[in-house]
Amino acid sequence: MTGRELPEEFVAGYAGALAEVARTGRRLDRGELEARRTAGERAAEAGYSLRALVNAHLAVTRAAWPRSASAPADSVLAVLAQAVDALAGGYERAQHLAVRKEEAARREFIDDLLYGGSDLGRLAERAERFGLRLSHAHAVAVAEGPEAYAEADPVARRVQEALVARFGDRQSLLTTKEGRLICIAPGGPAEVLDHFARQAHRATGGGRVAVGRTHSGAGGIVQSYEEALNALELAGRMGLGDPVLHAADLLVYPVLTRDRQAMADLVRSTLGPLREARGGAGPLLETLSVYFDAGCTAAEAARRLSLSVRALTYRLARVRQLTGVDPADPLHRYTLHTAVIGARLLDWPAREL
Q1: Angle, alpha carbons 108-228-178 (nearest 5°)
Q2: pLDDT tens-place string over residues 19-78
């Protein structure tokens, strides 16, 4: 559009104002300045560049440059500066309005998309505008940090700029929702979401990122988004330390809690006796959790708990004494480990089961 010839309507009235300046030596009045602002707005809306608009006014200035001694050059240059400033102001005003409209449209589209409550045909049409083809497979990544993030937040801008610099502006859709950063990308190679995860983790000061599985269609995007949210919530409950979580790697946890009553029974029957320990079940439950996370290596578990190996061994012996289940016995380990995972998932013993 920058190469299109600018129509005369965008410089209309400017030559007459210059002639008046040449005759009187005055500056542009309020009406004339508003006319230049309006010209700048209309040029932006029509898709012409600011450079073309300014060049057209420079050409009119050269053609109408007053040659009489009564019009000093500084008067004409001052008016030209006024005109260019007004043109730029109107042009920027139109661009800011367009950006706000675009952001509002994108936010409305994403709300409709992620909540799955819009007409699919209309949703697919709107998706094309934002670079998404709902007939293809997509995945969603969600990042959260110590603060809530908004669309204009510097963190969101940095992540957006990093993605655009690497992949262009048609390979992903980035937004914020409920204080989190959200990225929707094609579900083929995971390169886009992997890059988003790295950039978001860095930009949020060590925040956590969860990536949903790849699914097809508009409903698949909703499902992937919910999987990412569930992964973040699960990481908080389980105390998972990984900065990037993939929902596909956490499928065992929903399986374990699918029958919540059965899991609650397992936790009560296996770990319930730990309540009899001095200090309650909490310290021994933490010991078991760290022990299993350390691969059942006593030295590593003791280091993580800031205990001596002898103190750790004593705690494990106390668990065996109270529950009748030996953490070191391969036959008992799976049951005990599953019960410990269930306790973390069900927030036991803080919550009664």
Answers
A1: 40
A2: 887 777 788 888 889 999 999 999 988 888 889 899 999 888 888 776 554 556 777 788
Q: Which residue type sits at 38? A: T
Q: What is the per-residue pLDDT across 16-31, written as a single tens digit (0 to 9) for each?
A: 888 887 777 788 888 8
Look up residue 76 and give its two tokens. Answer: 């004409």
CA distance 306 to 317: 18
HEC letters along the chain? CCCCCCCHHHCCCHHHHHHHHHHHCCCCCHHHHHHHHHHHHHHHHHCCCHHHHHHHHHHHHHHCCCCCCCCCHHHHHHHHHHHHHHHHHHHHHHHHHHHHHHHHHHHHHHHHHHHCCCCHHHHHHHHHHCCCCCCCEEEEEEEECCCCCCCCCHHHHHHHHHHHHHHCCCCCEEEEECCEEEEEEECCCCHHHHHHHHHHHHHCCCCEEEECCCEEHHHHHHHHHHHHHHHHHHHHHHCCCCCEEEHHHHCHHHHHCCCHHHHHHHHHHHHHHHHHCCCCCHHHHHHHHHHHHCCCCHHHHHHHHCCCHHHHHHHHHHHHHHHCCCCCCHHHHHHHHHHHHHHHHCCCCCCCC
User: Among 94-108, 138-152, 154-168, whose mean pLDDT is lowest?
Assistant: 94-108
**pTM of whole model > 0.70?**
no
Tokens of 95: 């661009």
- Cβ atoms of 87 and 50 within 8 Å: the answer is yes
Task: Give CA–CA dist 124/146, Å, rounded.
Answer: 34
Structure tokens at 190: 């995971």
| pLDDT score at 319 | 92
Q: Which letter, b or e, does each residue of 328-346 get, where b requires 16 or more Cβ atoms within 10 Å of its Cβ?
A: eeeebbeebbbbbbbbbbb
> Among residues 154, 245, 246, which one has the least CA distance to residue 204?
154
Enter the tokens of residue 203: 């930009």
Strands 208-211, 137-144: pairing is antiparallel
